[in-house]
Design brief:
Blueprint (H helix, E strand, L loop, with lengths): L7 H7 L8 E9 L7 E9 L2 E7 L10 E11 L2 E6 L27 H8 L2 E6 L7 E8 L6 H4 E11 L8 H28 L3 H8 L37 H7 L5 E5 L2 H13 L6 E5 L7 H7 L2 E3 L5 E5 L6 E5 H7 L4 E2 L10 H10 L4 H6 L3 H6 L17 E4 L10 E6 L2 E5 L4 H8 L8 H9 L1
Length: 457
């Protein structure tokens, strides 16, 4: 079978680079760990996909049987962590408004150019979620931007559901809010109906579950008389988990606090609505707000609620004072940092606003280097439940390392190598797309200019 032409550039970059070595060592001129001071003349040892040693060359002994990447003239850093993106799928949104029973695992396209570009930009961990043009979207997952199957890319399944307080196209805010409230109202009525059927001796739900081939032997959820700290269903302990409607179960996980929620807000008024729905249904503690740039105006409300946020790629916004007419530029991360709100930077769905550029912009506007880097590495890693695994280089962390030609925040620097789980998955010198962009493809036996002249004749 012939390889599709679309895949050839990707395969040319990756074939021969990803053979698994149980032990792998990286030598780097400078190592930025995000877990301590930079290391000069550093060594990172990776075994079984995890970092087992990191320090200066004088402190760390490289195993005799380790494959070694000598990058002594390069700078090593942890990969950036994208806390929310809806790219990398065959389509970001579904036509149905309520789809919590779907999983984006079935929609991810492993050979999407977006994942290639993410490697080139130094992004090594991405939380892929459905787009926000919905009421409640499907289940997301955290992936690495490398692999020919979803299973190879997987970092964490079931990373959370996307909800939107911003009105879907054709809807008003009132109907959007009512649809959200109705979804949880339907869940409560469904659970109450199951309890009543059990008390009446009606085994309809059991027969339906058995007909669908569902497992009724598990006891997850049994013994709970409460759904959340916001509303309860008395007698729910009588209902086996397997008898709950599969389309309703993901929302039950949400209100029980076992599934995270990414709540999109397109304006400050949406923030109020999102927080109210999360609070009324008991999942405020597991909620992360995904904000439009204008939502900085609701920072006090967000601070009071104690939730974390993913910022829009637009980090500055010009506002006009309605009384004086004067324009004022607002640095959005500064507003959240001043109030002590945990936030993650985002390039969202494009590499045009690359994460390095986001970090550099924060530093240029007065944030400390440590805080700016954290907003693109350790903070989003913690949001995704991957604190200590990704976003920093430390003993026990995943073996994900990006090697830059110079300062990662310099416009003249670029990614030379990317190592994921102790395997070399990107080598700039073998990146055909980059070569074509920078040099052009010269025909055999002559220069590009000569070929052009010949064509004119």
């Amino acid at each position: 079978m012939k390889t599709p032409l679309l895949l050839l550039p990707l395969l040319a970059v990756t074939v021969g680079l990803a053979e698994a070595d149980d032990k792998y060592a990286i030598k780097a001129g400078t190592v930025l760990t995000m877990a301590g001071d930079p290391i000069t003349n550093g060594v990172i040892v990776i075994e079984g996909g995890r970092i087992t040693a990191i320090g200066s060359a004088d402190e760390v002994k490289i195993p005799w049987d380790a494959a070694v990447l000598d990058a002594s003239d390069l700078t090593a850093a942890p990969g950036f962590v994208e806390a929310y993106t809806s790219s990398g799928m065959d389509r970001p949104n579904e036509n149905v408004e309520l789809a919590p029973y779907l999983n984006i695992r079935d929609s991810i396209d492993p050979v999407s150019f977006y994942f290639e570009d993410s490697l080139r930009a130094g992004v090594t961990t991405l939380n892929v979620q459905q787009g926000a043009a919905c009421v409640i979207g499907g289940m997301g997952m955290v992936v690495q931007p490398f692999g020919l199957t979803v299973e190879e890319m997987l970092v964490r399944p079931n990373s959370g559901l996307i909800m939107s307080a911003a009105p879907k196209s054709g809807k008003s805010r009132a109907t959007q809010a009512q649809a959200l409230r109705e979804a949880f109202g339907d869940l409560r009525r469904h659970l109450e109906q199951l309890v009543q059927e059990k008390r009446d001796g009606n085994d309809r739900a059991r027969r339906e579950a058995l007909y669908q081939g569902r497992d009724l032997s598990g006891e997850r959820g049994l013994g709970r008389a409460m759904v959340s700290d916001a509303w309860t269903v008395e007698g729910l302990e009588l209902v086996p988990r397997g008898e709950i409607d599969e389309k309703m179960e993901p929302l039950l996980d949400v209100v029980e606090g076992t599934t995270d929620v990414y709540f999109y807000c397109g304006s400050p008024v949406d923030v109020h609505q999102a927080l109210a729905i999360a609070r009324d249904n008991g999942f405020l503690a597991s909620t992360t707000l995904v904000l439009d740039a204008s939502c900085w105006k609701a920072a006090d409300l967000i601070k009071e609620a104690g939730v974390q946020v993913v910022l829009d790629p637009a980090l500055t916004r010009t506002e006009r004072d309605p009384r004086t007419g004067e324009e004022d530029e607002v640095f959005i991360p500064g507003v959240f940092a001043e109030k002590g709100i945990t936030f993650a930077l985002s390039s969202r769905n494009t590499t045009n606003e690359s994460m390095w550029f986001q970090v550099a912009t924060c530093i240029a506007n007065g944030m400390s280097v440590e805080d700016a880097w954290a907003a693109a590495t350790t903070s989003p890693a913690a949001m995704l439940g991957l604190d200590g695994r990704v976003g920093s280089l430390r003993k026990g962390a995943d073996g994900d390392v990006v090697l830059y030609s110079g300062d990662p925040l310099s416009i003249s620097s670029h990614v030379e190598f990317v190592v994921l789980d102790g395997k070399l998955v990107y080598d700039r010198s073998k990146d055909i797309r980059t070569k074509h962009l920078l040099e052009g493809i010269q025909p055999e036996g002559g220069s590009a200019d000569e070929a052009s002249d010949e064509g004119d004749k």
